[in-house]
Amino acid sequence: MANIAQLPNEILLDIFECLQDEPFFLVNIVSTCRRWYRLGCSTLYRHISLRSKLRGESTATRFAKSAAQRDLVQSLGLQVTQAHLMGLSVLSGYAFDRLIELGDVVASMENLQTVALSFEKPHGHGFTAPAFAIVSLLHSLPKTVVNLSLDCECMSSPELKQPHICDAVGALLPRLRSLRLQTSHLCSGLLSRISPQATLDHERPNFPIVTTRIRATSSLEYLLVRLVMRPESECGPHTLLCYSENRPIQDTRLSTALHDLQKAGAFPLLRHFAVMGRVDAQPTPQNNNWNVFKVRSLAGCGTTTTTLPWCARGGSSSLYMIRDDEGDWFGSFQEITTALEGPLAWTTTGIKGNPPSLRDTIISWPIGHSKLASRDSVIKMFGVSFRLWKHEDAAKMKLLHSRTAAGFDDTAASSQTLPPGWRWEKPIQRAFTWEDSSREADKMPFLHRYQAFDNARLRDVREPTGYGPNVICMFWHMSSAGFRRPSFKYQAIRLQRPIEPSQEVD
Description:
- It comes from Lentithecium fluviatile CBS 122367.
- Helix content is about 25%, strand content about 25%.
- By secondary structure, it is an alpha/beta fold.
- The longest helix has 15 residues, at about 95-105.
């Protein structure tokens, strides 16, 4: 039997290919012998990830000193850290030296095809990414790059005297095959090389979104634009229109502009695009409106808008919930929004894409569940509970749904829908006091039984007398004073079951 050293090069390369997601194991392999080093380097350096630092030896600095493997790199992940951004904000010479160093390294990669450029997100108060740094790195990309991901959730506000990031990305648009874009500011400069007259300003309704005059065409096959920001982002919860005094960009406007350009022939190879946005719900006394993510997509000739309800768990937890056709899913906000990318998820070779077939039916947008936790698992691990689940258990049916509609016109949030005959009762406000906790029931005839809880905590109480059989009764313990004579003000929101004629009360 032949040992592994006697295997032909072709088989060894196939084995090394299977290990390309295990870089540390590949490092050990290429250190085995000269033959394996020669064969394994092409796999080991095909995709690399670099992080910049202000001082000391960073991965970017170490790689900059090694020129031998640069021509092997086909995919690059480059992250600019908060330390580097801090140096740029105070005009540190070290920071600018590092920026030039990064640009030189990227420009020297002659076979580079895929680049994922990101800027480390600040935790709390941090440093924004200056436009000149982003534009400098984009200008250093070799012409071989056809797949680009730009993730800059918190960039400095654009200024007229600085290079403009939208123009820099727009200059690359004609040659790109796939583009994934998330920035805190965006404008029609993104489309300026394709259609100079295009506008994304929704406050100019009489100005056409695009014209039929196309200056150039793009090789784009897949496009994903994320207008979703973290709720606590320093740059605001939504992507803003450049030079607009903090007006949020409208995802309907952007989606329509891209669709019109596609119909005009600007994107002859486009197979699939999606624009991810967010709609924040208006509060109601019943608290039955939900914030939603909106995914507006085009695949083939069909356009759809998928609406997915989401919310934060609350308290000290960083868990967020999103609901789709398959159930409730949990993760961090970053995990939730990454899962939203679905068939247009970014890989080390760009966006591969798997557009759905839109024939006779409207297909809902599929989200990726691989990194999310299911409802059963978070209940088991963390004891997660939602008022919505209690309502649905009581009604024995689903009250909140994701939805998919044709076109880009669906702009509404989501609300819980009640079964036929059920209704929300009007809020009831009452105040009462008592002297002895042992006599609570005598002092509160409105309730069959009462349970006292901590302030601002939602809890169930029993059904009030004089009403039909209420399934769920919630109250907010608003205030208390003293220990022997507490006084309460509360508001009850009830989901009332339909009353049979024989059960009606006066």
